[in-house]
């Protein structure tokens, strides 16, 4: 029998709302999850992307936390198979990532294809896209954003089934979270049926299973206030001719969130305090996210520091976020077309001052008109080309001038040896 664990979207290092305690929460969730997987005596552990919260600027504490946790399955001789998510990956041509570093430290196996006159899917040997374990073949594909569908189509042609076959990737599936960017239709993944037996995904922070074939465990912790009610956890999967699975989360309870909306009708704080106490009952040091509806005259009478003290006494929060929704500030006015366009152009002009495009505010307004009317794609393309051509003329001159200067300086510079750090890292593996 084959038994494995599947988790994703760990986001270690997420100092949510600037809170050190929240950063510790994410690390604790990872520690508890890995200890749980080891206690379940699984054959291997899959992490489907976003192990880290930031692809760069990883602080020493975050790296230490991840390394210490990954030493637990290593000591138990349980391999950890991972792919890079959008929070782990570097840019397309910058190859070396923190997951590569962990793989070089023999703490995990980081699966991803390479590109050499097309997509290359090779067996893991310090690097590679698939690995064979005892009776199991595992393929891995990192996050590719808008290129996902195209690369997935090419990747599928390279898959060769061998025993129980798993495909691991960091891909969002449409239909599970509203307005989520970078997702694909599940039909694209169902095309892998017959080639693989289990698709292990990450990216969507809500747990779901589709047709006992596509599995997404969700994030271990709450990464955004919109995720409070999501199911999440770790899939424990067994296979002995058929796939059996369960979503487990008893090993960790995410931080409590208290999300509330209150309207101040007068300056009495007694009702406000009672309102908070009722909602904070049975919550342990929650993150309080409070929206206060109030009219302008009343807002001037209410001191925010006093509000925070009441929240502190009533809820004992880890942190408090207050949003003021103040009515009565703005009165709608009707603008004629000429006045509206003048205001829009002025705003666009100010925004563009931060960039080197020059004054293209008129062209941007023209683009807006096209989008709002017929959305003629050819017209959009033509206009974008014109804008880029005009704004690129000066850049081209600067570039030619720079090349000329560089060629003059080249002869005067002494030759120096450049350390090929990528080769050194590869050999170090």
List keywords for this structure.
429 residues; 19 strands; alpha/beta; six-stranded mixed sheet
Structure notes:
InterPro entries: Calcineurin-like_PHP, DNA_Repair-Maintenance_Comp, Metallo-depent_PP-like, Mre11_N. GO terms for molecular function: exonuclease activity. It comes from Archaeoglobus sulfaticallidus PM70-1. Keywords: Exonuclease, Hydrolase, Nuclease. This is DNA repair exonuclease. This protein is an alpha/beta fold and 429 residues long. It has 3 domains: 247 residues, Purple Acid Phosphatase, chain A, domain 2, CATH 3.60.21; 71 residues, no CATH class; 67 residues. It has 12 helices and 19 strands. It has a 6-stranded mixed sheet. The chain has a 6-stranded mixed sheet with strand order 7-8-9-12-14-13. Strands 17-18-19 form a 3-stranded parallel sheet.
List the helices and strands and how they pair.
Elements: E1 2-7, H1 20-39, E2 44-48, H2 60-75, E3 80-83, H3 98-104, E4 109-110, E5 114-115, E6 119-120, E7 130-133, E8 136-141, H4 148-158, E9 164-170, E10 172-173, E11 183-184, H5 186-190, E12 198-202, E13 208-210, E14 214-216, E15 234-239, E16 243-248, E17 257-263, H6 270-280, E18 287-295, H7 296-299, H8 304-315, E19 319-327, H9 337-352, H10 361-372, H11 377-410, H12 421-428
Parallel strand pairs: 1-2, 2-3, 3-4, 8-9, 9-12, 10-11, 12-14, 17-18, 18-19
Antiparallel strand pairs: 1-15, 5-6, 7-8, 13-14, 15-16
Distance between the termini: 32 Å
Low-confidence stretches: 410-419
* CATH overall fold name of the largest domain: Purple Acid Phosphatase, chain A, domain 2
Compute the average pLDDT.
86
Number of helices: 12
């Amino acid at each position: 029998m084959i038994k494995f664990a599947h988790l994703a979207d760990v986001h270690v290092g997420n100092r949510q709302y600037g809170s050190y305690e929240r950063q510790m929460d994410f690390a604790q969730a990872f520690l508890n999850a890995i200890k749980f997987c080891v206690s379940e005596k699984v054959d291997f552990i899959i992490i489907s992307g976003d192990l880290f919260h930031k692809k760069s600027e990883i602080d020493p504490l975050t790296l230490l936390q991840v390394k210490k946790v990954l030493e637990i399955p290593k000591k138990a001789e349980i391999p950890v198979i991972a792919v890079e998510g959008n929070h782990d990956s570097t840019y397309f041509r910058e190859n070396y990532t923190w997951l590569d570093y962990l793989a070089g430290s023999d703490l995990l196996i980081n699966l991803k294809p390479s590109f050499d006159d097309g997509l290359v899917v090779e067996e893991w040997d310090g690097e590679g896209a698939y690995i064979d374990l005892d009776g199991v073949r595992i393929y891995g594909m990192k996050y590719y954003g808008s290129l996902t569908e195209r690369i997935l189509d090419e990747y599928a042609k390279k898959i060769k089934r061998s025993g129980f076959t798993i495909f691991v990737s960091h891909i969002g599936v449409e239909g599970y979270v509203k307005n989520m960017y970078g997702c694909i239709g599940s039909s694209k993944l169902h095309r892998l049926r017959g080639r693989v037996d289990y698709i292990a995904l990450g990216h969507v922070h809500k747990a779901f299973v589709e047709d006992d074939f596509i599995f997404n465990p969700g994030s271990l912790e709450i990464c955004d206030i919109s995720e409070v009610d999501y199911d999440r956890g770790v899939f424990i999967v067994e296979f002995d001719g058929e796939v059996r699975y369960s979503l487990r989360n008893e090993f960790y309870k995410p931080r409590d969130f208290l999300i509330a909306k209150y309207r101040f009708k007068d300056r009495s704080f007694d009702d406000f305090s009672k309102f908070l106490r009722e909602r904070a009952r049975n919550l342990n040091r929650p993150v309080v996210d409070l929206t206060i509806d109030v009219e302008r005259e009343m807002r001037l009478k209410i001191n925010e520091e006093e509000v925070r003290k009441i929240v502190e006494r009533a809820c004992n929060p880890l942190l408090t976020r207050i949003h003021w929704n103040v009515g009565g500030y703005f009165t709608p006015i009707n603008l004629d077309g000429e006045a509206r366009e003048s205001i829009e152009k002025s705003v666009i002009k100010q925004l563009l001052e931060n960039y080197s495009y020059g004054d293209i505010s008129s062209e941007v307004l023209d683009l807006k008109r096209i989008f709002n009317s017929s959305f003629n794609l050819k017209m959009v393309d033509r206009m974008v080309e014109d804008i880029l051509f005009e704004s690129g003329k000066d850049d081209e001159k600067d570039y030619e001038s720079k090349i000329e200067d560089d060629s003059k300086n080249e002869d005067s510079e002494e030759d120096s040896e450049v350390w090929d750090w990528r080769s050194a890292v590869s050999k170090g593996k």
